[in-house]
Amino acid sequence: MIIDISNESFRRILENKNLFLPIRWDGSDFSSTLDYLFMDYIKQIELTEHENNHFKNICINLDDIKRVCGLLVKVVNHYLNGFPSMAYEKFESVMDILMVTPLEIYQKSVMEQFGNSMNNIDDDKLKLYRVVNVDDIKPYKRVRVFHTPYNLRSKVSTSRYSIAGYPSLYLGTSLNLCCEEIHMNPHKNFALASKFKLERNLEYTNTNIQVIELGVKPQDFIAINENDENNKRRISHHLLEKNKTKSAYLLWYPLIASCSYIRTNKSDPFAAEYIIPQLLMQWVRSKIGANKGEEYDQLIGIRYFSCASIKASEMGFNYVFPTSGQQKSNNLPYCSVLAKAFRLTSPEYMHEFDCVESCEKYLNRKNDFDYIGN
Prior knowledge:
The protein is α+β, with helices and mostly antiparallel strands.
């Protein structure tokens, strides 16, 4: 069923605080929690059908939204019942629906999104950082702040977008966010920090890079006219105001919400909150594999807001890129695709700076970007 809603109706749907992200939940029954959220969400949309408004210009397929919600609940049920292969099969059906109407937020401002344009690398406004804990203060090379090497897979614990034993490269748009994600206190722990740059020269990388957008909250549309100088998640108002973006967001919201539950107990070995995001990463990796043999390598990442806490969710964006290539060499057991896709500064010890912001400013002034192994 195709329905047409107004901008006022769209705003009213997303003003429902029950839909705000990320979501803190009681940790009891994840399947029921999702089901209740989706029922409330669909009810909000259905209420707009009966409004008499002459400015209806956001066209959505309510049947597709209902289908996505129902499939995601089935995905979780299959997984929790011990049938991960059936869960993934249902999840593929979700992505088949969503990818017909992709959510594209290509920004040209401070938080520039990865687009198809090959901008001059020196003019690249996207700032990406990585922080890693270390046990000593030896001089380390760039590889120490890259992804966990292939020969140390046993050190890779489960994460929101990656399963245990599978390395991925996680980056953040601010050092404070990176520290928050790994629960690191730079005044009590030894930690290394580097700034990363995406290599946009396709002829050099031989890699086509795409990013799936999961970094938009309902709150972003509600606060569209607010001018908050401290906002670290600036998203172009021009893009958010497009009816095409709003239509796509209503379709994608169930998936974004499913990936955006705050983990209730970080000490538990299993996290129901990670079921959907880990299946999404599995889907991403399958798409990378399906494109092998084409003219260019494929690298698909995900951009998302932090779900470590409500506070962290406003501190910037996270990016995750799965390893997808063979190891670069016997001496460098790192993904060859990622090794070509990113340059980074030599790492700095964060405890040697007065504060996190001072370290970030110093990294922003550095210009010794190079590839791992150098």
